[in-house]
Design brief:
alpha/beta, five-stranded parallel β-sheet, 8 strands, globular
Amino acid sequence: MENPVIVAIDGPSGTGKSSTSRAVAAKLGLNYLDTGAQYRAITWWMLSNGIDVNDPVAVADAAGKPVIVAGHDPAAPGITVDGTDASGPIRTQEVTAAVSAVSAVPEVRARMVELQRAAADTSPAGIVVEGRDIGTTVFPNATVKIFLTASAEARAARRSGELNGAQSVADTRAALIKRDAADSGRKTSPLAKAADAVEVDTTDLTLDQVIECIVTLVEEKRATR
Ligand SMILES: Nc1ncnc2c1ncn2[C@@H]1O[C@H](COP(=O)(O)OP(=O)(O)O)[C@@H](O)[C@H]1O
Ligand SMILES: Nc1ccn([C@@H]2O[C@H](COP(=O)(O)OP(=O)(O)O)[C@@H](O)[C@H]2O)c(=O)n1
């Protein structure tokens, strides 16, 4: 049988990773994994259990406790923490503000990477995995690696639109830039483009154009291997 296809999609917030990855997985009949949702889920658990997220030792000590299960269906991925649906709570601004600190802790990353590799092992046709370090660390031998970018203005406008104006574009832009810096500057598996990743600037592309571009790259790669 053919090896499973692994499509790694990395990039900063608001570049279109989730929307693109889900559509690409659905079109190609592959599983889907949102690794950002896993880091958000463990962050939500830390906050809910009174762990000081700015204390890396406390976070490391607790990292093995929550049971996080991410769904792989691109039409309805979902995520549970200790059996409770966490899809809503992981998207709050409180979690968004704390997630970079939690995800910088090596013990947290080791646990998540284990779950991410296990997800690929149970995806016979293959999987589209989105995050920050998928092409560099989690799947260095991925079939196709994509690094999405977009201007800070475009990303902030997209995100602010999702929050229905609850946060201004300027405040959203500042929060995104702060999180990018934390994610790119951490020691363990920072946000980075893999040397062999294809960079796609989505600033002036429609979502459909980005999806088409990635589907074509995967199909080309599949045809030649
Ligand atoms: N190419 C694009 N053009 C316009 N809007 C986009 C594009 N890609 C994504 N979006 C929108 O931007 C928002 C953020 O996209 P998302 O996929 O969640 O990004 P990420 O996962 O990288 O944070 C969503 O509302 C999505 O519909
Ligand atoms: N592979 C990954 C994915 C996410 N993350 C962390 O998780 C956070 C949330 O990721 P996300 O993909 O849900 O973020 P958004 O792009 O949705 O805003 C990021 O800011 C990183 O701190 C990570 O460290 N490594």
